[in-house]
Fold each of these.
Amino acid sequence: MQAISSSRVAGAPSMLEATNLSVVRSGKLVLEDVNLRINKGEFVGIVGPNGGGKSTFLLTVLGILQPANGSVTVFGHNPQNVNFNGNVGWVSQSAASIPTKMRMTVRELISLGTLSTSDLFSFRRRKNDEVVERALELVGLTDLAEMDIGRLSGGQRQRAVIGRALASNAELLIFDEPLVNVDRSSRNGILKLLDDLCHNENKTLLMVSHDLTAIRQSAHRVIYLDGQIQYDGSPSEIPDLSGLAGLVGLQHVHSHTHKEEE
Ligand SMILES: Nc1ncnc2c1ncn2[C@@H]1O[C@H](COP(=O)(O)OP(=O)(O)OP(=O)(O)O)[C@@H](O)[C@H]1O
Ligand SMILES: [Mg+2]
C-alpha cells in the first residue's frame, strides 16, 4: 500500500530525509527500510500501533539512535555529526508534565528556549527579550506571562512548552504525543496554533499522535508506521485506515470518547 506522498510544498527545500533507514534496538529490527522526505512547511502526522517505531524514528532523527542501515539527514546533515543548536525543537509528552511545584513563571520557562550552546557565552539579552515576547504571543500566553507554571491548566502548560520550543526559533518542530491529557477545547486551540505555525511561520512540523481525529483535522500528510511505512499520503485519502487501525490497535480516541464532536 506504499503511496507516493503528495507534498503540500513541492519544490520546497528538504528538511528531513530517510533513505533505506533501518534501526535495531536490543537486537530487534524496529524500523526497516524507511524512505521518506519531508519538505519545509509541511505538517506531517505519524500514526501507528504501540511499538510500531514512531518514537524510535524521532530519536533517530534527533541523532540519539544510530541507523543499522541506510541513513537519515536533517537539513542535509547527519544528525549524529552536527549540533543543531536550537534549529530542531522537541516537545515530548513528558515535557508537558513539568513539575508543578517548580516556582517559575511562564515567561521564565519560555526564556529557557532561547538558551543554546552558542549563546551560553554571549548572551544577547535584548534580542532574546523580543524573541520571548513573540513566542508568548504565538502561543497565546501573553496575559499569563507572569503566572506561576504550577497554576496553569494542562493545555496552557502544553502551550508554554511549545512556546519554549518556539523561542529557540527552531525550523523543524517535533512533537511526540502533544495532545495526551489535554482537554478538547485546549486540544483544538493547540491544533490551530500548530496549523498557524505551519502556514504563517513556515515551520515544518512532525507530530506523533494516537489521536486520529486530530491528525485528520490538522496534518497535511499522514505516515502510518508499523516497522515499515505502511502508508504515506493525504489524510483524506486513507479510507481504509480505520479498518487498518482496528486491526492493529490504533484508537479512534475522539469518536469513542467525544461523540458530540462528530
Ligand atoms: N530502550 C529500548 N531498548 C530496546 N528496545 C526498545 C527500547 N525502546 C523501545 N524498544 C522497542 O522498540 C520498538 C518500537 O518502540 P517505539 O517506542 O519506537 O514505538 P512507538 O511506535 O513509539 O510506540 P508507542 O505508540 O507505544 O509510543 C518496540 O518493540 C519496543 O519494545
Ligand atoms: Mg512512542
Amino acid sequence: MNALAKELNEIIAKENPVVLDMLSDLGKNLFMPKGIVTQSAEAKDKAHKYNVTIGIATDENGPMFLDSVYQCFTDMTPAELFPYAPSSGKPELRKRWLEKIKHDNPSLSAGTSLPVVTNALTHGLKLIGDMFLDKGDTLVLPDKFWGNYRLTFSVIGNAEIATYNTFNDAGGFDVEALLEKCRESARINGKIVVILNFPNNPSGYAPTAPEAKAIAEGLITIANEGTKVIAVTDDAYFGLFFEDDVYPESIFGLLAGKSDNLLAIKLDGSTKEHFVWGFRVGFMTFGNTNNSDQSTMMGALERKLTGLIRGTISNCPHSSQSIMLRALNNTEFDAERAAKVAIMKGRAVSFKRVLKENDFSDQFDYYPFNSGYFMCLKLKKVDAEELRLYLLDKYGVGTISINKTDLRLAFSCLDENDTDDLFRIIYQACGELSK
Ligand SMILES: Cc1ncc(COP(=O)(O)O)c(C=O)c1O
C-alpha cells in the first residue's frame, strides 16, 4: 500500500477505526498524490517572480483565452445552458468534433465512431481503464509520463504499468524501446494497452514523421502477429507543434483500420487545445479495425461507453459543450487559436535559444522538446526536489520536480522576455546548491 494511503488510514483509524473498516479495498488504497498539484499549490503561495509549474497557458493578464469563447458568456440562450446534455454529449458538438478530427488528420482513412463527450481527458482515461483493463493487464507507457496515469490506472484501476525508455541516444523517441516493451508485455496474456501521449507531458516531445510512422507500423505488426493491441492516443496537447519536422497529425490516423487485432482510441478535447482548462470538454473516439463498414460495432462501443458515463457521472456539463460548439463554428476561431499557438511557439523557441546560447552543461542538459506546454531539464549534480524547494524559497521561482533528476518547466506560462532570466536563476541556484 502507498505510504500516503497508509497515513490517511491511520488518521481515520485513530479517530474511528470502524470508519476505516467501512472502506472498500479501493477506498483503503486511495490517497491524493503529492505530485504536480501539490507542487503547484506551493508555488502559488511562494513563486512571486516566475511560476512555471502550471499546466495552463497565461499571458500578462492571466489565463489565455480566445475571444470567440469568452464572448459566449454574454450571449447564451437558456436552452443552451440549463437542460441536461445527453450522456454521450451534445449531438451537434459530437458531429462537429468528428469534422474537426477529419480536418486535422488527413491520414485518417478508416471509419470511426462518433466522438463521445467525456468530462475532459482525465475522465476519458478512467473510462479506458474501466472498459479495457482487467486486473493484471498491462499498460505500456514511456518512462516520462503524466503522473496522474499512475493514480488512474494503477491505484484506482488494477493495471500493471510497464515503462520503456522515452528517448534514444540520438535524441529522438525510442521507438524500438516502445515496441520491445509491447512485445515483452504481450507475452504475459496476449493483450496490451498502450498510451501514445504526443505532445508528451512532461517532456514536450512529439515524434517526427518517420518516428510516428515507425511507431504505427511496429504496433500494427505486433497486432498482426497475434497480440490484442488497444492503442490509445492521449492528444491533450494536439496542434501545439513548434518545429517543422514534427508529425502534425495524431497517430490515431495511422492506426485506425489497420488490423483486426488493433483497436485505436482517440482521446482529445478542448482543455489544452482551446485554452479552456476548466470547461471539462473532452472526447473519446473509436477507430474501425478494418476497412469494411463497422458502423454497427462502432455504435455498440459508443453505447457501452455511454452506459458507463450514465452509471458514473450521468452526463457532462451542458453549458461548456454549448459554448465550445458555438466557438468551433465561429469564423474567427481558427485564426484566434493560431495567434495563441504562435505565442506558445515563440516561448518554446526562446527556451531553445537560451539553451543554445549558454553553456549550462556542468549543471544540466535538457530532454528533446518541440511541442506542447513543457520541457524538462536533466540535472547532473543537484536533486530536483531540493532544487525546486530552493528556487521557491530563495528566488520565488516555481518549477516541478518529476523525479530525482528531472525538473519540468512550463513555457506555457512564462513571458518570452523572461526566459533568459529564468535560466540564469536556475543555473545560479544549481551552482549554489552544488558548492
Ligand atoms: C498528458 C495529459 N493527458 C491528460 C490530461 C488531462 O486533461 P484534462 O484537463 O482534459 O482532464 C493532462 C493534463 O494535464 C495531461 O497532461
